[in-house]
Amino acid sequence: MQEYSSKLLENAINQLSKLPGIGKRTAIKLALYLLNQPIEEIDIFTNAISSLRHQIFFCKHCHNISDQEECEICRNPHRNKSQICVVQDIRDVIAIENTKVHTGIYHVLGGIISPIDGIGPKDLFLNTLFEKIEKGNINEIILALPTTTEGDTTAYYIYKHTKSISNTIEITTIARGLSVGDEIEYADEITLGRSFINRIDFESSILKK
To answer: Which residues 6+ apart lie within 8 Å of 85 measured at CB?
Structure first.
């Protein structure tokens, strides 16, 4: 077991190494880097992290992150409220927004159906999505979910449930310009943008398989 000359340094290293993709060596490097920064800069850094956890909201409408109860996208009067893009998580919202091709709003599921991982429909924000659909103000549901078995299962579940509520809503899915298994957040903006613009009818995508 490695020993450090300072318990405070050891504690910082241990905490940093808990971050995704940060091993012990990188944690040491980061801790020593922070140690050499001006105290004012460290205070700004730590306050930003603390505020992120204590003061951030999740939008009451779409479950996206927000500084208020309602996110900026849902508040924007210029967004098309009748067009909902359904995504797995917040990272997908960021990726799609970077393409600047979606003018509607979002609905963040908070995951995808995965029986192996013990995640079922009740573990996702599906009820609030279906509640929006039942209000009758939705024209199109865009399913922008991963091209995996779990993603396809979730998309089909939403498709079937939506059709049981209304047959007039158009249900589309982004074109399969992404490699099978690729996650939306890792797609480059041009590929993702084209996939979004060239989206196809979801029922047609099922028949092609």
So the answer is: 96, 102, 104, 105, 106, 107, 142, 144
Pair of tokens at residue 4? 């450090």
Could you report the per-residue pLDDT of 24-41, keeping only the tens digit for each?
999 999 999 999 999 999
Residue 134 in 3-state DSSP? helix
Q: How far apart are CA 149 and CA 58, in angstroms?
A: 28
**Per-residue model confidence as pLDDT tens digits over 152-195:** 999 999 999 999 998 899 999 987 655 434 466 666 777 788 88
Bridge partners for 86 per DSSP: 107, 143
- Taking the C-alpha atoms of residue 185 and residue 18, their distance in angstroms, rounded to an integer, is 22
The CATH number of 7-55, from 1.10.8.420, 1.10.1200.10, 1.25.40.10, 2.40.50.140, is 1.10.8.420
Query: Which one is the CATH code of 77-207: 3.30.43.10, 3.60.15.10, 3.40.50.2300, 3.40.1360.10?
Result: 3.40.1360.10
Q: Are 35 and 9 in contact (CB under 8 A)?
A: yes
Give CA 172 to chain center in angstroms: 19
With both helix axes pointing from N to C terminus, report the angle between 149-165 and 127-134 in degrees, rounded to the nearest 10.
Answer: 30
